[in-house]
Amino acid sequence: MNRNRSPGGHQARKRFGQNFLVDASTIAKIVAAVAPKPSDNIVEIGPGQGAITEPMLSRCPSLNVVELDRDLIPLLQAKFQQYPALQIHQGDALSTDFSRFYQTGRPLRIIGNLPYNISTPLLFHLLGYSGMIKDMHFMLQKEVVDRLAASPGEKHYGRLSVMVQYHSQVQPLFRVPPGAFRPAPKVESAIVRLVPYPQPPCPATNLARLSKLVNACFQQRRKTIRNTLKHLVTEAQLAELEVDLSLRPETLSVADFVRLSNQMEAFS
């Protein structure tokens, strides 16, 4: 038997980063973590052959799913033809306007087994809709979940940690071994829950400036704050910043970065 071919007969495609979840106990744990209700407004990214879609539909029959692989669309349509409220959208989640699924009083609940090769850009894309989202549950490479949840001073702490934690609470849930997939990936996976804040605890006056600051700092994470910021502000402005300029970016909290960004915004 071809190890890259799923039980449904579809050849997993490397260019789409496809690893189909096949372990029943893992699927049950994911569904329990999401705890879908009939009135929920759920969007699934990358349903694949419907391993998670099927138990979700039995609890929430008006699901929307976004699938990139055109060859999987007829398979999903045939498999779930008894669910007329299921909406299958062929397209790239990275370019999908998720506001199209939002309804007043029905914020989005987004789930998905995200391809490892697009997980970080997709997370940043989704954060742009955080005001419309109730929560997100994702299967990701465990290292990505470690980065999402990392605290200042930890080795995984970086740009992704700061920007995701600015927008949302990060709750790592459980690990998933390679054997739960077909084909089995070479890395361990994990499930994470992201719960966007209605209002960030420490609001940035200019989110674009915060993003630029965080990106600049972690591109040179071994440099001190002084050496990083001297290219962004004048020497006089550096002296006004309320931060120890000898620190490295990896030691600053989300609140520290926001405070720095807001002070820099005040200079402009």
List keywords for this structure.
single chain; alpha/beta; Rossmann fold; Helicase, Ruva Protein, domain 3; disordered N terminus
Question: Explain this structure to me?
Answer:
With 268 residues, the chain is α/β, with parallel strands linked by helices. The chain has 2 domains: 14-196, Vaccinia Virus protein VP39 (Rossmann fold), CATH 3.40.50.150; 207-267, Orthogonal Bundle (Helicase, Ruva Protein, domain 3). It contains 10 helices and 9 strands. Strands 4-3-2-5-6-9-7 form a 7-stranded mixed sheet. Strands 1-8 form a two-stranded antiparallel sheet.
CATH architecture of the largest domain: 3-Layer(aba) Sandwich
If you compute it from the alpha carbons, what radius of gyration comes out, rounded to the nearest whole angstrom? 21 Å
How many helices? 10
CATH superfamily of the largest domain: Vaccinia Virus protein VP39
Number of domains: 2
Layout of helices and strands, plus pairs?
Blueprint: E1 20-21, H1 24-34, E2 41-45, H2 53-59, E3 64-67, H3 72-79, E4 87-90, E5 108-113, H4 119-127, E6 133-141, H5 142-149, H6 159-167, E7 168-176, E8 181-182, E9 189-196, H7 207-219, H8 225-229, H9 235-240, H10 254-267
Parallel strand pairs: 2-3, 2-5, 3-4, 5-6
Antiparallel strand pairs: 1-8, 6-9, 7-9
Short description:
This protein has 268 residues and is α/β, with parallel strands linked by helices. It has helices spanning 24-34, 53-59, 72-79, 119-127, 142-149, 159-167, 207-219, 225-229, 235-240, 254-267; strands at residues 20-21, 41-45, 64-67, 87-90, 108-113, 133-141, 168-176, 181-182, 189-196.
